[in-house]
Fold each of these.
Amino acid sequence: MHLPELLAAITAGADPGPFALLRRADEPDLEIITGTVHTVHRLADLPAAPPAGSDGTPGAGSAPAAGADRAGPCALAVVPYRQIAERGFRHVDDGVPLEALTVTGYHRTPLAEAVAALPDLPVAARDGRFDVPDDAYAETVRAVLAEEIGRGAGANFVIHRVFEATLDQPPLLAAAAALRRLLVDERGAYWTHLVYTGTRILVGASPERHVSVADGLVMMNPISGTFRHVGAGADEVALLRFLADEKEIDELDMVLDEELKMMAAVAEQGGQVIGPYLKEMSLLVHTEYLLAGRGSLDVREVLRRTMFAPTVTGSPIENACRVIARREPRGRRYYGGVLALLGRDAAGRQTLDAPILIRTAEIGPDGSLRVPVGATLVRHSTPAGEVEETHVKAAGVLAALGLASGPERPGPDAGAGSADRVAPGRPPSGSGAPPGLADLPAVRAALAARADRLAPFWREQRDPATPVVPALAGRTALIVDGEDTFTAMLAHQLRSLGLLVRVRPWQDVPGDAVPAADLVVLGPGPGDPTSAGDRKMRTLRGVAATLLDRGRPTLAVCLGHQLLCGLLGLPLRRRTAPYQGVQRDVELFGMRRRVGFYSSFTALADADELDTPYGPVTVARDATDGTVHAIRGPGFAGVQFHAESVLSTDGVAVLVELVTAVLSASPAGPAPGRLSTGPVGGR
């Protein structure tokens, strides 16, 4: 079906059948996709071209890909948030299905022709309001800051709420008119889209690519930080304040680290960081990075391993899902999920293009309207500032639907912690700052300064055939994962040094039977390390005790470091202010190093040397408050920071020093005594 036929059916009030209208990035055409929709249970069941090098047989349970003998799209998947169940993560199951539109018709129409054909009429809606009032949302923000981030559950969390209303027009006609307004008024969107599955409509302008695969290149696009245009002439000064805002810098760095963890799971050498850049839209400016890496996984497996973006969940992601399930009593439906266009290129290779379902309205057949939005909560957040951010993010889509949203009662700290936000409302058509802010010399310098903060390891292309430390080539390492996939990034760094690395979840590593390896890395994870009743803490504490007792070469990171310190007799405490996403220069055994911290707990020491049953231990600590940055003893070492983080510019150098020292200084036999494995203190 071509666009004129499709629009004629919509205008006549007829059901045209499932379809999608897509403008992707800055493409000059609108894509028109038609086909049949069916529900599948798993991402692996989605129709897709077979991966390169396969025998051409679809995966188990897969529907055959339409047009498998030609280049182009095979299917458009509408992936709800509840699909996170495929990763075993907690969620509120709202029953929203995973639907796939199998492509039977595909056409392209020049954008100007498409805009001229789409209905140019005002959209009318009524009874607009947020399902969670401003005051209640602000209280949730306070609780998350104090009870989740403050107690070590993670570095950041995204909590959403939904603007609800009722359309006064036929749903498809209103959606088509809203699409036209978005195509005309919005700029900088990754996808501008209208998808109709036969039972539901999704229309919006998502700024953010979640993941794409083309020519074997996997790309992700973490976006964070929200700046609202404040008018010509003031924009450059205000934008520079925004780019220097500590909260906004930390927020983007944290999601960058989290998406690097995902890239480490889907690209053979992990992701290379490119940027940062400005994402300029009609009302807002965001900051963003691009991540790129070569991969060979089936695109459906790429989707599964990257559910879902930290910009809509938080980090570390597994515990972020637990927090969301605790703090959001209703399901998320499509918020935070993805649209995913699967296909093949002219050479027969799989392709994938998947934007995040944000800045998107869901319209039901009865005219019910839902516009979900969320704010990223970090240690600098203020309740009023995050309330306001949800209004700002909703503004563009609501304007296209004839609605506006503003704070119910701006608080005294409205906008605090997020520079130069202004009260949102319905914008005039086509409003926004003039394009080209990113080309201003001062802006380019500010972005370059942000890039200079990042670890060279993740910014440079790497040759996996040349280990940095030839003496480590062929040595083996086992990483015990405490539910933070920073371990995937750490594995890439250790492999780059020449080690052969395995990663095992903590549940698979019994404390008294740690698998053989030249080096055991007791990894990071969320939670309270002082807890005596927590199963994970008991298990990891037992692993650490076994490693010490048997003199096994050990490197402990963050939570692992804290448990190790507890076994060595050091007290542990929760920090007054969380150290989540903090970059610091610290003194490490005679060297000044720049490293990144993600912790709410710390060990304390009042001396630089300790006598322990496992031999003398040297402590690197903050002289002002005694917080321990690192320890090293005969055959073991621990670091409170994350050497693998993009914030650790000296991370690889630290790893080289500690790993070589641990492997060369490990005692020949077991340690003489075993310390108590009672309550001690982690992340």
Amino acid sequence: MAEAHQAVAFQFTITPEGIDLQLSYQALNQIYLSGVRSWKKRVSRLRNRVIKGVYPASPSSWLFVVIAILATMYMRSDPSMGLITKIQQHLPLRYTETQEPLYTMLSVLVFSTLLWLSLILALRFCLKLLLSYHQWMFEQHGRVSNTTKVWVTLLRLLSSRKPLLYSYQTSLPILPVPAIKETLSRYLESVRPLLTDPGYKRMTELANQFESNLGNRLQRYLKLKALWATNYVSDWWEEYIYLRSRGPIMVNSNYYGMDFLYVTPTALQAARAGNTITALLLYRRKVNREELKPSRVPGTVIPLCAAQCERMFNTTRTPGVETDVLQHWQDSEFVAVYHKGRFFRLWVYTAGRLLSPREIEHQIQRILDDPSPPQPGEEKLGALTAGDRVPWSQMRKQYFSSGINKRSLDSIERAAFFVTLDDEEQGMRGEDPAGNLDRYAKSILHGKCYDRWFDKSFSIVIYKNGKSGLNAEHSWADAPTVAHLWEFTLATDAFQLGYSEDGHCKGEVDRSLPLPQRLVWDIPSEAQVCSSLAVAQALADDVDCHVFPFRDFGKGRIKKLKISPDAFIQISLQLAYYRDRGGFCLTYEASMTRLFREGRTETVRSCSNESCAFVKEAEQCRHLFRLASERHQNLYRMAMTGAGIDRHLFCLYVVSKYLGVDSPFLKEVLSEPWRLSTSQTPVQQMELFDLKNYPDFISLGGGFGPVADDGYGVSYIIVGEDMINFHVSSKYSSCDRTGGNCAVLCCPFSLPFSHSHYYCGI
């Protein structure tokens, strides 16, 4: 909008008398207010830098130190032991005797500041040491050691001040590099139930050869990296697992989040879009101002790394020939909108203020009412982001590097986020609610393959009947970060912003707002768009999704058995897979490593000797189940505390490639398929949802595509005390499929307790 105002702010005509300059004061006022808003943000960011830079102390503590030193000086005591006098002597200024008190005061200020900074560094070092203690995680519930009790007390004292979002970042410990011998030992233990005796013997020999020859050499390079890098895993993980992938990111990388299960706050598409966009921008404001509370380990005061929040908005993954690049802009005052084949730029700020939800609804309705047809090549342009990356990179370089195409593409990529106004209706509705729920999940995951912009950090989908959903790109952050954003959005939309009785957003409308801007394109050839669409469509048609709300019981009943709900579900999935396939497979469960700075994820290998023993055994199931549960919890804790297997082996493999050496062991390990890939979507802000008074406002969570062509992708969210929602995906083309759709995996989950010796004893 600022560009449009600048265009009309100054108008001039050349006359015989000279130049007649005309000023638009309204436009100049808009520009002035936008500038004021920009400067306010800069001042706010500077203030936050100071506050988090001195945490766990406060800026005001400097004044306390200065007053304390002055007081002791007044009492003719020198707490600096002569340092103040030395500072005064070395000041690069000359002064007379009458000016000596003034320069003494200046020396006191210098000494006090240095003392204050030293105290801050000491406090931050102590906080870092405290956050490096992880033994608390391995202690049994109700049996807390005295060491842990003292640790908790000290941590609470140092965290007593209200922190900003990024206050803990510099105090978080660095992810340690595990000992190679321990990693190999844990790896061999994890694959034992999956290999025959000869296969296990062969793998043991490969591991021993790797450790005695190449392994220690690679380990030294990895430790060297860990000395200077903030995190020895994250940059390589982002680049080689995500950005260097040349296949489609749709389905393979992007994941989705769904709306409420039973409730649609309004049936008006424009109104739902108005509140959703507003809620997202309010969240962005909290991120920019660092007003969000730092995420913590549930039920504790232990902070988690917040680095992933930095690239949440105004971020796009841009394609390259060999690798993609994540581009992030400081701020955007507009969003990109897609509707019926047309792209729009919608300004969400005017005169330095955020539009009201009702104003955004009004603007969205203008887009919905716009009868203009798509331009040639515009309708399916988004398919370029859904297909292979190299053709998209070449197309971008050839046709989008200059002119109107570049300006329009910039409007999408620099937007705060992407919005799709879908012309379909979705949700659990009609005569086939279960089938419609599955189609709803597929729609958010890939849509029509051209009506989403899969490169954006996240895209919002608003359906014709008011249902909503979210599609997120994976390289910049993991699901918990996006889930936190989506929880806030749903809760703010339904409970804070709300709707009028007729379903419209609340607030007033300034009807003089300029129309949303149509983006203009000049696409000389649609051949590559059609080719990318064909690739994406084949992938989308092969994906099967099943959403399974399980209401027989939830974590409340599981916790009464003194068993971890996550372990309970993971072991049940092992049983379900065994009944489906008649065997076991390498199982991936995502665990976070955000206890460490810039930590992302680690793998929990859920298929263990103990879980397999439980599944196979018909007798003594209760005892075996508890052993399997305890084993799984221990694996999860080890992954969280930096003692995992897969990230360490992955980084060793990357080092080997840089050195140009081959390792048969690492090559085989990293080629093993994850036929069962699982992830829990955590509920992080239960205080936002009043399930007692509003029990129908239940989040469905989200899901992702299968990792292996012949495997399953399973995501689940534990909602309240009595419900678990599952999202299962697989491919129709899988040659090992035993059923017609991925509901096959869910069916055994509802019956694992017919392993009746266990369940009947509850």
